UniProtKB/TrEMBL annotation, chain A:
Principal subcellular localization: other
Chain segments annotated as transmembrane: none
Quaternary data: Homodimer.
Catalytic activity: a long chain fatty alcohol + a 1-acylglycerone 3-phosphate = a 1-O-alkylglycerone 3-phosphate + a long-chain fatty acid + H(+)
Protein name (record): Alkylglycerone-phosphate synthase
Keyword set includes Lipid metabolism: yes
EC numbers on record: 2.5.1.26
TrEMBL record, chain B:
Membrane topology: Peripheral membrane protein
Family statement drawn from the similarity comment of this UniProt entry: Belongs to the GPAT/DAPAT family.
Protein name: Phospholipid/glycerol acyltransferase domain-containing protein
Source organism superkingdom: Eukaryota
Location(s), subcellular: Endomembrane system
GO cellular component: endomembrane system; mitochondrial membrane; peroxisomal membrane
A GO molecular function held by the record: glycerone-phosphate O-acyltransferase activity
Alphabetically ordered keywords of this record: Acyltransferase, Membrane, Transferase
GO BP terms in the entry: ether lipid biosynthetic process; fatty acid metabolic process; phospholipid biosynthetic process; triglyceride biosynthetic process
Keyword presence, Transferase: yes
The organism of origin for this protein: Nezara viridula
Pfam families: Acyltransferase, GPAT_C
Length: 629, 669
């Protein structure tokens, strides 16, 4: 979470009837096109340049200047972007030693940026490339540019880049940077004509193997990088809508809107780097969905460029009964049907009050009972998340020495609730973090209600500070894996959505199965932890973190894969879904037909055949390869 | 083998350390340690009482009486069921026990290394101890052993008979016994409450949980057919996702001498036992002044229900039939494991020798040196049949020692002859009341009791030999000269296995076991296997020994059939039928037609009854509440058994009798 995000104080309350012209013009007629020719297009500030690796890592997560490092045996976090930056983290070091048997002096440095002759040879369809050049669409066949668009953020991806470069065989042959819907239409027509494969590439934060190239593909593979399609096309304050190109990165969209007193409110943990197009293509879910909705709730209209033409609905209707909603063919299509070029999303005025909170529960089940009750009464704040004890302890360790803001949870807690602390076992307790957004009295009301429910379930409010830290850490946690890989630790997360009555079963059984599997593989040091990150009327979203020390294993990624598969089988067996928001990609394709029924899979397959008869969107997401069945 | 076991009484040699030991600070190992704080027994009851689902389940029963009446009854039932825990009681019990054990046992042996492995792997899923049930001591010993190894003492399912014992029920309850009514399938409210209680206990409890799969103490020394009720409740908690797995630990507790041996012998003959009472219990303690030899507790390999069920059960789409089948399989697996964990004592072998001697010679006396020789021979047979006999040191000394231990049954005369003792029998005045068996004369009781007691020590060994015994018995009348094919013999073998399915808990009459037995017999030189046919080679001593083992069982079955052929049973109950068959047998014993007193065993007769109903020879018409027999099948069986007994060759096409025909048809499917 960049520090620059405007705080609530600096934002003036927006005027709903504002007709000012500092933003691209609002529309007077309900013309069905996305873009009025007369409107001046605005290019918002772009946090990530065209040459991505100038700012973000080529072989890991996030900004180049932000990372965990070990100095004199103590883990530190670099850079000033995040609040824990430039601080020593002695407790975290201890935690890593104890739990994962990390030796901070035994570092194994990652691979260097490879030389030019390392990159796999390109397969170039010359005619296609020639026509692209005629169209003056920017492109590159540079090895490094191609490599950085060959992967997402799965463990497999990052492990290969850092430790096993030799395993990288197939990367895109050409990178293309279209600037507009029209560019994309040209590219797709040409690709179809010359039988060239297109893989849309947004922020590259995919965690399902969705953007990687199928090894067996012998045609030219183009990575269609949407990063230059990052314009805001218009902002409609009356209807509270924004229209933008899909390469727009989440944080850029958000700063643009916030400067004008609005917010989209869609905040996946990856929103610093993931793109609007990526969100739609994967059916992303944001932390604050309780107030703003998930991407499918936000999406009003969308353009999908397919080899057969452009799929798009008419108008700006709030809801329609016009047959099946075709937006839903685009949502979750994971780059297999076409390129999403422009979208219209709902926006909201920025909430005047933003307040954090936290609740401590004596044990996890009590916390889940509270979440369930909150959902039953439909009084969720913008976000409510419940961490288990492992994550609580881990979060505790991520604090610098001697800092009052960072003083330990227990200290804060003790200060406030000395009288109640009895009966709470620090090895069992778990913590829910809360984020409220809204008008002052609204927030107050919500607080009262939620803390009452919490008390009924055995919980005690544990202060704003703890809540705020919890959310802040979310963004930092993603950086830890890179460090881990230098110390023989692999780590990854996986998630599911599950009905309320199966939530605890899923949590418990997955922990059990992972423990059992680790034992089978002779893994001595591991961490399996879960948190409930979203609540719905009929269920929750559960998010798992799993890390282990791979000492003694020859292929840690394969072992990881086997364990995650076992966990997934268990999730499905217990009544959890294949994915709440990460998507199917290639990683989970083998379970897809079972989840949607064979008929469902065939229906999708027929759609795909119709829209893309030559299979130029050949990233092979969703449907399992025959060979894997 | 013996070094696997450790005598834990060795740790308690010094009296004055006892108190220190029981009062030591203990950090108990938790069997299941989920991320939840510990829950007190009272809290557990409250959780169940508060369960709204439970209330929904029972509310129809309370239609008009309403919510409070239901609450009231639920909480009363919970009070009756629920265990309590008082560490002080457990400590005092420990002190008392250690003194008792030191006095009355030579050794309490444990396969300690296995127990340590089990304990070290505890923590992730509920652990269920499933010991054999031969004596009331089973409870107490298990608690003692857990206490000794710093494992939380188990919550154990106890029968209601203890509830009537005043002080005892408190002690038991406070050492985590919970109480379970017998046969409560039809009591909807009780069943629902009990089920919910068990489910809650399984998911909240951090101690191991213990139950007896046999449902009750086996009076015969043999395994009883496993019961599925409690097991299925436990497995249900896994299937509904309340727990991630279940670890099952089959355990065999082998006694040199069973505390209740005499009581059991009387019970088997149908002479009523005194009701359990605390006074009776203390009286029984006097019995403890005698020496009871060794007790061996053999912990089996723990297995996980999850692994056992693998992916064959779907949590979301439950399939009743499939689950019931699986639970049966688990139950039989446990019984099978318990059986193979059995450790035989010297006296088991000696009992076999005496049994064989009595059948062959009708004499109740056997010279010591002959006994030693025969025991020695038999040890070889035990080896071949993979039975472990726990003998320490010199054989003759051990045998003498075991004769002393079993002074209630045998003694060594001054001429070094082993003699079977007759009991001093005093008939209670009110004996005819609530008597389960028929009236037996004093002579029969005096002759019968020692034979039945002896059989109690023979019985455990039958698990090893019974398959071979059935094979030879069947073979004898199939053909004495000509060869018989393996398949034909197998069909006939299965027929008899079905008949004694309950008697010997023949968990699987599958071909592999049958074939293994054939190979063993071949290696003994009794059989010859040649291209799918079998021939008897040698009618040696072992052959006769094996044939003799089955004799009383066949006789009983045969008498049962004859009874059914002669009598009209339409208006009778199972108990009446069994009682009348017993009466008939006792009459034949008096008149000298039958010599085997064990045929009188009510347990044996009811097992036959149950088998006959499963074979559809006895049919109960539920609507009319009447019993019928299938005349054709009954006739077939009767002829068959007659032939077996007389060793007469059967008419060839006889084996194609209608039951066999059906069951073969089935097995081919
Ligand atoms: C640390 C971390 C935290 C995350 N947190 C969240 C979270 O909180 N919520 C959540 O939902 N997800 C989360 N994700 C997953 C990921 O960020 C989302 O799936 C995101 O929507 C992907 O966007 P992207 O722009 O990076 O897409 P990419 O990774 O580039 O692509 C993802 C898929 O979408 C396709 N695609 C991308 N753009 C287009 C387009 N314009 N047209 C057609 N297809 C396209 C690609 O071909 C590919 O199949 C997280 C990932 C990481 C690494």
């Amino acid at each position: 979470m960049p520090k620059e995000v405007p705080s609530s104080k600096t934002i003036s309350k927006c005027d709903h009837n504002d007709n000012s012209k500092d933003v691209p013009d609002k529309r007077y007629d309900s013309d069905r096109s996305f873009k009025l020719p007369s409107v001046k297009i605005q290019k918002p500030f772009s946090a990530i340049p065209k040459k991505r690796t100038d700012v973000i890592k080529w072989n890991g997560w996030g900004y180049n200047d932000s990372k965990f490092v070990v100095k004199d045996g103590i883990i530190c976090f670099t850079g000033k972007r995040y609040p824990i930056g430039e601080l020593e983290l002695p407790y975290f070091t201890e935690w890593a030693k104890k739990l994962l048997n990390v030796d901070p002096f035994k570092i194994c440095l990652p691979c260097e940026i490879p030389f030019d002759d390392f990159f796999p040879k390109t397969i170039i369809n010359e005619d296609f490339l020639c026509e692209i050049m005629n169209l003056k669409i920017e492109h590159s066949v540079d090895g490094f540019e191609r490599l950085t668009r060959s992967h997402g953020q799965t463990l497999h991806d990052i492990y290969s880049l850092r430790r096993n470069m030799g395993s990288i065989h197939r990367i895109p042959d050409i990178v293309l940077w279209p600037c507009s819907h029209e560019d994309v239409m040209h590219i797709i027509a040409l690709a179809d004509k010359y039988n060239v494969v297109i893989i849309p590439y947004g922020g590259g934060t995919s965690v399902s193997g969705a953007v990687s190239c199928p090894e067996s593909e012998t045609r030219t593979i183009c990575s269609l990088d949407t990063s230059q399609m990052n314009n805001i096309l218009w902002l409609d304050k009356k209807n509270l809508l924004v229209c933008c190109q899909t390469g727009l990165v989440g944080q850029d969209l958000e700063s643009f809107l916030q400067e004008r007193g609005f917010t989209c409110g869609h905040e996946p943990d990856s929103y610093e780097f993931s793109t609007v197009g990526g969100w739609v293509a994967t059916r992303a879910s944001g932390m604050k969905k309780n107030v703003y909705g998930n991407i499918e709730d936000l999406l009003v209209n969308v353009k999908l460029v397919t080899p057969k033409g452009v799929l798009s609905k008419e108008g700006l209707y709030p809801r329609q009964s016009t047959g099946p909603d075709l937006n839903h063919i685009v949502l979750g299509s994971e780059g297999t049907l076409g390129v999403i070029t422009e979208v219209i999303l709902k926006i909201r005025p920025v909430a005047p009050i933003k307040k954090y909170g936290s609740i401590v529960f004596p044990y996890f089940d009590a916390g889940v009972a509270c979440m369930r009750e909150v959902a039953r009464q439909r009084c969720q704040p913008a976000s409510i998340r419940l961490m288990d004890n492992e994550q609580f302890q881990f979060g505790q360790s991520l604090r610098p020495k001697n800092s009052s803001y960072w003083s330990s949870f227990t200290e804060n807690f003790k200060k406030a609730y000395l009288k109640h602390i009895k009966g709470f076992d620090l090895n069992l307790i778990c913590v829910a973090t809360l984020l409220f957004e809204g008008e002052k009295d609204q927030v107050e009301q919500q607080e009262t209600l939620i803390y009452k429910i919490a008390r009924d379930c055995g919980g005690i409010p544990a202060g704003e500070n703890n809540g705020e830290r919890g959310y802040m850490l979310t963004f930092v946690i993603a950086y830890i894996r890179d460090l881990g890989l230098d110390f023989n630790i692999v780590a990854e997360s996986f998630e599911t959505s599950v009905p309320w009555d199966r939530t605890l079963t899923v949590c418990r059984n997955v922990k059990y199965i992972v423990g059992k599997k680790c034992k089978e593989f002779g893994i001595k040091y591991f961490l399996i932890s879960h948190r409930v990150t979203q609540t719905y009327d009929c269920g929750s979203c559960v998010y798992f973190y799993f890390a282990f020390n791979w000492e003694g294993l020859s292929d840690p990624v394969a072992t990881y894969g086997e364990i995650e598969s076992a966990a997934r089988e268990e999730i499905l067996r217990c009544g959890g879904s294949l994915s709440h928001h990460h998507g199917i990609g290639k990683l989970r394709a083998r379970w897809y037909p079972k989840q949607v029924s064979q008929l469902g899979a065939n229906l999708y397959s027929a759609t795909k055949k119709y829209l893309d008869p030559n299979n130029i969107f050949a990233c092979q997401n969703l449907l399992p390869l025959k060979s894997n069945l | 083998m013996a070094q696997k076991f450790r005598n834990i009484l060795e740790d308690f040699q010094k009296n004055d350390h006892d108190f220190l030991w029981i009062s030591r600070a203990i950090n108990f190992i938790k069997a299941y340690n989920q991320s939840r704080p510990h829950i007190s027994p009272n809290k557990l009851k409250k959780i169940v009482a508060k369960n709204s689902q439970l209330y929904d389940m029972v509310k129809e029963v309370f239609e008009d009486k309403g919510f409070w009446a239901a609450k009231q009854q639920i909480s009363e039932i919970l009070e009756e069921i629920g265990y309590a825990y008082d560490l002080a009681v457990v400590r005092w019990l420990g002190l008392f026990l250690i003194k008792m054990l030191r006095k009355s046992l030579s050794g309490l042996y444990i396969n300690e290394s296995m127990l340590k492995v089990i304990a070290s792997e505890m923590g992730n899923s509920p652990v269920i101890f499933v010991p054999t049930h031969r004596s009331y001591c089973d409870f107490i010993l298990m608690a003692f052993v857990c206490f000794k190894y710093n494992i939380h003492i188990p919550c154990v399912a106890a029968g209601m008979d203890f509830l009537s014992m005043k002080l005892m029920n408190k002690v038991l309850r406070n050492s985590k016994a919970f109480f379970m009514r017998r046969k409560f399938v039809d009591d909807h409210v009780y069943r629902s409450v009990f089920q919910e209680y068990i489910k809650a206990m399984i998911s909240y409890e951090e101690s191991p949980i213990e139950f007896f799969i046999e449902g009750t103490r086996s009076r015969t020394g043999k395994s009883l057919s496993p019961k599925f009720g409690f097991l299925s409740m436990v497995v249900e908690a896994y299937l509904t996702g309340d727990i991630p797995d279940l670890t099952i630990v089959p355990i065999n507790i082998s006694y040199d001498r069973i505390l209740e041996e005499q009581l059991f012998a009387y019970e088997l003959l149908g002479i009523p036992k005194p009701k359990e009472s605390t006074k009776g219990f203390f009286k029984a303690l006097k019995v403890l002044d005698e020496n009871y030899g060794n007790i061996l507790i053999n912990f089996g390999d723990a297995f996980s229900i999850r692994s056992f069920l693998d992916n064959q059960i779907n949590f979301r789409y439950r399939n009743q039939e499939n689950e019931t089948n699986k639970i049966k399989q688990i139950a039989f697996k446990i019984t099978e494991m318990q059986q193979s964990l059995q450790i035989y004592s010297c006296f088991n072998v000696l009992a076999l020798v005496l049994y064989d001697h009595i059948i062959r010679t009708h004499s109740h006396a056997l010279a010591l040196h002959e006994a030693v020789r025969s025991v020695n021979e038999l040890l070889f047979l035990f080896d071949l049949f993979c039975g472990t006999v726990f003998v320490e040191g010199d054989l003759e000394t051990s045998i003498k020692q075991s004769i002393i231990i079993h002074g209630s049954l045998v003694y060594l005369s001054s001429e070094n002859v082993i003699i079977l003792k007759k009991p001093k029998f005093k008939r209670h005045l009110n004996q005819s009341e609530n008597q389960e068996g028929c009236y037996l004369s004093d002579e029969i009781i005096e002759e019968g009791v020692p034979i039945v007691m002896l059989q109690i020590y023979v019985n455990p060994t039958l698990t090893l030999f019974i398959r071979s015994s059935i094979i030879l018995t069947v073979f004898e009348c199939l053909s004495k000269e000509i060869e018989v094919t393996i398949d034909l013999l197998y069909e006939n073998y299965q027929y008899i296995c079905d008949l004694f399915k309950h008697e010997f808990v023949l968990t699987s009459s599958n071909f592999q076991e049958y074939y293994d037995s054939l190979l063993k017999l071949a290696s003994l030189g009794i059989l010859e296997l040649h291209e799918g046919t079998i021939k008897i080679k040698n009618y040696n001593n072992v052959y006769i020994f094996l044939i003799n083992l089955l004799k009383p069982f066949i006789i009983s079955a045969n008498e049962f059939c004859k009874f059914l052929l002669e009598e009209d049973i339409t208006q009778k109950t199972q108990l009446q039928v069994v009682k009348e068959v017993q009466d008939k047998i006792s009459f034949k014993i008096i008149s000298g037609y039958i010599e085997e007193y064990y045929c009188l065993s009510l347990d044996l007769l009811s097992n036959i009854y149950n088998a006959l109903s499963e074979m559809k020879i006895i049919i109960r018409n539920k609507q009319k509440n009447m019993l019928f027999t299938n005349a054709e099948l009954l006739n077939d069986l009767n002829c068959y058994l007659c032939c077996l007994l007389k060793g007469r060759k059967m008419p060839y096409n006889f084996f194609k009798n209608s039951y066999l025909y059906n069951s073969i048809g089935k097995s081919k499917l």
